[in-house]
Amino acid sequence: MSALKMITAAPNEVCVERRFNAPVALVWRAFTEPTIVQRWLTGPPGHTMPICEIDLRVDGAWRYVWKMPEGEMEAYGTYREVVPHERIVHTETFAMWPDQQSLITTTFHAESDHTLVRMVMQFDSTETRDAVLMTGMTDGMEMSYQRLDGLVNDLI
Amino acid sequence: MDTLNQTFAALADPTRRGIIAHLSHGEATVSELVQRFALTQPTISVHLKVLESAGLISRTRVAQTRPCKLEPAALKAVDEWLDRYRPIWEDNFARLDSVLDELKNSPGEPPCLPSK
């Protein structure tokens, strides 16, 4: 169990990092086997993932459908790179924003019996996404002028 | 949500973010902003109009000038919206922790490798 790290390394990038108390082979399975993915990648409480399709090879397609009280949400994409136990690069598009595509690079780093997973999400340059990412270093603190100042200084 | 989209669009421009940063120190007039950003008055005015209609700034009339002032409420809405991402990932990964614990205790599963 370790803390989630979220950083914005570049204007259109968000990096999520998390260490898991399991060997890399197991973590890899948890990220790539549909029946396992369906158990944890469910998002907010009350959401489920009834559809999880993963064709894990270069140019293979994936599709996730989440069900929630308000309806359904779908995301899909294709795999660009697959290096077992090391690296997955895939595109991601949400059905509700069909024009926006992100590129997600997930790397798995074996550390004795732990595994560090780093996901770098690169968004295309639509205004909205850029804005989301550029301001995406929130940490649950109260917004203050000082913080806003630092945030904006990072951006300019 | 429309307002939020408008806010995001307003914040997507570097000059407008610069103006926001500048106003975080206090009110400023258009001519002060023109000087600070070395842009023409019409350009600054266009940016201010976008920021104003997104609710990020407000402008009052004082004699001949219309000082601009930051409206933190709109930024707070953006901040709260973004804060929704973190707990979602924290929840996902907490569930993954339990799934991994379970997998560790069920040996014999073949490793999943990509199909050729």
Provide structural commentary.
The complex is a heterodimer of chains A (156) and B (116). Chain A is an alpha+beta fold. Chain A contains four helices and eight strands; from the N terminus they run E-E-H-H-E-E-E-E-E-E-H-H. Chain A has a single domain, classed as Alpha-D-Glucose-1,6-Bisphosphate, Chain A, domain 4. In chain A, strands 1-2-8-7-6-5-4-3 form an eight-stranded antiparallel beta sheet. By secondary structure, chain B is mainly alpha-helical. Chain B has one domain (2-91): Winged helix-like DNA-binding domain superfamily/Winged helix DNA-binding domain (Arc Repressor Mutant, subunit A). In chain B, 62% of the residues lie in helices and 5% in strands. Chain B has helices at residues 2-11, 14-23, 30-37, 41-53, 72-82, 85-104, and strands at 57-59, 68-70. The model of chain B has no long low-confidence stretch (mean pLDDT 80).
Distance between the termini of chain B: 44 Å
Q: Mean pLDDT score of chain B, rounded?
A: 80
CATH class (first level) name of chain A: Alpha Beta
Strand content of chain A: 35-45%
Topology (SSEs and partners):
The complex is a heterodimer of chains A (156) and B (116).
Chain A: E1 5-7, E2 13-20, H1 24-32, H2 34-40, E3 48-54, E4 61-68, E5 71-83, E6 87-94, E7 102-111, E8 114-123, H3 127-134, H4 145-155
Chain B: H1 2-11, H2 14-23, H3 30-37, H4 41-53, E1 57-59, E2 68-70, H5 72-82, H6 85-104
Antiparallel strand pairs in B: 1-2
Helix pairs in contact in B: 1-4
